Amino acid sequence: MIAREWKCRVPDIHSEGFTAYLYETGIKDSSTTPGFRGAQIFRRSLAGKLELTLITYWDNLESIEAFAGTDISQARLYPEDEVYELEPELSVQHYEVIEHQFSAEQRG
User: Mean pLDDT throughout 30-54?
Assistant: First the structure.
């Protein structure tokens, strides 16, 4: 399994709207691509901005290419990104997943 990591920043005022938009674009498009295994979104506050990290999980590099195009090292961006004053990283990172176990038990 391969993990694909992409990061971006948006001003705090766009945090909720952009997160919903990210689901409607990147997550929705990814999830309809054969070989997609799942996704996680992480966020953290910076000075006046929110940083988001999107990690998607894929069967193999060919699956990622079906989603991202032939140059899988480039981020896939969307026309409406500028509405959210998006500061995207233009490249993505790929990692071989060697452990992916989560506990079924939830801790409070």
Answer: 94
Question: CATH fold of 2-96, please?
Answer: Alpha-Beta Plaits (3.30.70)
Q: Per-domain residue ranges for the chain?
A: 2-96
From 45, 44, 42, 69, select the one nearest 56 (Cα to Cα). Answer: 42
Parallel/antiparallel/unpaired status of strands 49-58 and 36-46: antiparallel
- Residue 67 burial (CB < 10 Å; 0-12/13-18/19+)? buried
Q: List the single range of 8-12, 32-36, 48-52, 102-106 with lowest mean pLDDT.
A: 102-106
- Rounded to whole angstroms, the Cα distance separating 56 from 13 reads 25
